[in-house]
Amino acid sequence: MYTLRVLMAVCLWIGIVTTSHAQEKFKILSYNILFGLQKDSTANIDRYVNFVKELDPDIVATQETNGWTQKSWEELAKRYGHPYALQSKEDGFPTALTSRTPPVNFKKVTENMWHSYLYAQVKGIHIFVIHFSPFSYRKRLEEVENIIAQTASLPQDEPILIMGDFNALDISDQAQYGDQVVQSMREQEKKHDHIRNLNNNQIDYSVLEKLDKAGFKDSYRLLNDTFASSVPTFKSGEGKIKSSNAGIGKRIDFLWANPVAAKMVTKSTIIKNDQTHVISDHYPVYVELTLPENR
């Protein structure tokens, strides 16, 4: 009897260990941090570091790391436990990626992009960190076609993620964008010759439709039926953060997943709390994947 009990206990322990190792959670944070966390603000930089530490993601994809260098971004990443960091460039509006494990086969691309993008593999996941043009839907179409072409060259049986600030609206949110949004965009185009975000005087959805037609899935819509804006933040809505995103709530920050990665998505949300109300004029996108044991 004693031997049987011991055997049953061992079998139970083996089952628990096997189950716990069969799958691995992979946590992703994508965040437009508004002019490099407004780098002259030590308080805001500390607030950001504390926020990331609490969330404890495996990778952080950022847009607008303005004012930071490759070396200084590496040092910042170490403060929240990421020994590896990449920054696309050191002028203008860079994108960046930090991670707990080494990114491999990475590329930093500025050609044919309004800002830039990063590509890297982390734990076998193909990751694109993008920041599309804020001023022209035609330029965004060129940029998304470029990214889709890059993804087509990768193994299609492996997970591929595209994340960042797309500066584009998705047709799944169409019901949220009424005449007030269109009128606001028309007024912007009247004031500024370089802004052409409307398509035939209407909201453009063609940029993200390209991703949908290429087989990519909006991670937020995989798990959420309700609308959540990613800009502007609560504080910028009160005029306390100066940015171009003040006004009506829109969702322009996304993580898109190819069919392989989409099956791994177990959580996708836009984080709104006391910290993210003030860190930036964007709210961060947070996604969790469940990875198979052999990845």
Fold topology:
Elements: H1 2-22, E1 23-32, H2 34-38, H3 42-55, E2 59-63, H4 70-79, E3 84-87, E4 95-99, E5 104-109, E6 116-122, E7 125-131, H5 137-152, E8 160-165, H6 179-191, E9 198-199, E10 202-203, H7 206-213, E11 217-218, H8 219-223, H9 234-237, E12 253-257, H10 259-262, E13 265-270, H11 276-279, E14 285-292
Parallel strand pairs: 1-2, 7-8
Antiparallel strand pairs: 1-14, 2-4, 3-4, 5-6, 6-7, 8-12, 9-10, 11-12, 13-14
Helix pairs in contact: 5-7
Task: Write up what this structure looks like.
With 295 residues, this protein is α+β, with helices and mostly antiparallel strands. The protein is 35% helix and 25% strand. It is built from 11 helices and 14 strands. The strands form 3 sheets. Strands 3-4-2-1-14-13 form a 6-stranded mixed beta sheet. A 6-stranded mixed beta sheet has the order 5-6-7-8-12-11. Strand 9 (198-199) and strand 10 form a beta hairpin. Helix 5 (137-152) packs parallel to helix 7. The longest helix has 21 residues, at 2-22. The radius of gyration is 21 Å and the shape is globular. The chain starts with a helix and ends with a strand. The model has no long low-confidence stretch (mean pLDDT 91).
Features:
295 residues; alpha+beta; six-stranded mixed sheet
Q: What are the segments in which pLDDT stays under 50 over at least 5 consecutive residues? A: none
Task: Please work out how many helical segments DSSP would assign.
Answer: 11
Strand content: 25-35%
**Cα radius of gyration in angstroms:** 21 Å
How far apart are the termini? 41 Å
Overall geometric form: globular
Main-sheet strand order equals: 3-4-2-1-14-13
Mean pLDDT: 91
